Amino acid sequence: MNQTLRINGERLWSRLEEIGQIGATAGGGCNRQALTDEDRDGRALFARWCEAAGCTLRTDAIGNVFARREGTEPNLPPVITGSHLDTQPSGGKYDGIYGVLAGLEVIESLNEAGIRTRHPLEVVVWTNEEGCRFDTAMMGSAVWSGVMPIEDAYALTDRDGASVRDELLRTGQLGSEPATASPIHAAFELHIEQGPVLEAEALSIGVVTGVQHMSRHRVIYYGQEAHAGPTPMTLRKDPMMALGQCLPRLYTMAEEHGADSRITFGFVHASPGSSNTVPGKLEFTVDIRHPEASHYQAMLTSYEEIIQDAAKQFGLDMEFECFWEAPGVTFDTDCVAAVQKAVDTLGYSHRRMVSGAGHDACNVAKVAPTSMIFIPCKDGLSHNEKEAVIAADVTAGANILLNAMATRAEVVA
Ligand SMILES: [Zn+2]
């Protein structure tokens, strides 16, 4: 393919604005939580656009929507792209939505250019990516890729007791297709970065090569409650002293694993929580992340040594557990290469990077060759009504998606 294809940036921008009116919040964001009336209305608008673009639509049993543009060889597995249309309660207008509407824009641009591909193309709307109303993120893609049994997903309930299955039925999103992956030739997800790196480096495109390894841990130190006055420092069993020793060692340890390592202490709770009592119990959480498996494993080993050391030194009993872990994802070499080729051809500023957050693409990657494309967002903000993007970046990202998909779907001469 010698031709460089381009999408229509104005159309894509105006559609992002139009769908953003559904569930619009006073602060300029969006509240379109999964399987609400607003989510249904957003999907309906998307479906109308797809039908006007000549796509055929189907919905599976967990409400994932597939809009298909036929290939010249309909029996070949499709090249897919997709993301989500649901939002956080006070979410932005671009998280997820951008990836879906850019997929439609790819199809419309190929239609207008009269270009056919050997492989069919499909744009997917994954159900309940956000996991805020129903407490499992990336639910639709998890069911489809076999990570989560559909009955478990159906049984999830919101705060009012409405189940996923009830709400799929009520909003007309319970489709007849089985929610299981069929063969996929290649998959791409275009998304806003949701972090500050691209903006800080003034780059337009992130060529995403994978997703970080990540896990969350809970540590409890048991000491002895004692009066803050009469008890000499040397005669205390004070779990806070152990934490005080751990923190600098853990920060230093993370630093030794390079700029890509992350360690976060998001929760610390001392009991009984009285200012003049030595705490008898101290609980805290540790979130550990690294893109490279060898570093990540080494960080976990060091973390355990450091927290156990401190307990020993201060004579404390302790408990610790890993309560959540998501293994990292390495994206498909050919898909990453297709994105890199598009970036090189179009000449956008870019860098290779690893995603710090989970996405539907992590689930898709379990069953299909997959990769992702990022564009910057203002101040790295997301899950926030103030989420903002620049029109030129929106166009750039969709141009990359178009060319990467065209490469993998094989343009017919
Ligand atoms: Zn998202």
Automatic annotation (TrEMBL):
Where is the chain membrane-spanning? Answer: none
Write out the residues that bind Zn(2+) 1. Answer: 84, 95, 191
On cofactor binding, the record's note says:
Binds 2 Zn(2+) ions per subunit.
Which family does the record claim for this protein?
Belongs to the peptidase M20 family.
Query: Mind telling me which Pfam families this protein's record contains?
Result: Peptidase_M20
Designated name of the protein: Zn-dependent hydrolase
Cited PANTHER family = ALLANTOATE AMIDOHYDROLASE, ALLANTOATE DEIMINASE-RELATED
Residues that bind allantoate: 216, 276, 289
- CDD domains (UniProt xref): M20_bAS
Question: Is Lipoprotein included in the keywords of this UniProt record?
Answer: no
Q: Which UniProt keywords apply?
A: Hydrolase, Metal-binding, Zinc
Family annotation (InterPro entries): Amidase_Cbmase, Bact_exopeptidase_dim_dom, Peptidase_M20
Any one Gene Ontology molecular-function term assigned to this protein's record: hydrolase activity, acting on carbon-nitrogen (but not peptide) bonds, in linear amidines
Residues binding Zn(2+) 2, per UniProt:
95, 130, 383
| Names of the cofactor(s) | Zn(2+)
The source's domain of life comes to: Bacteria
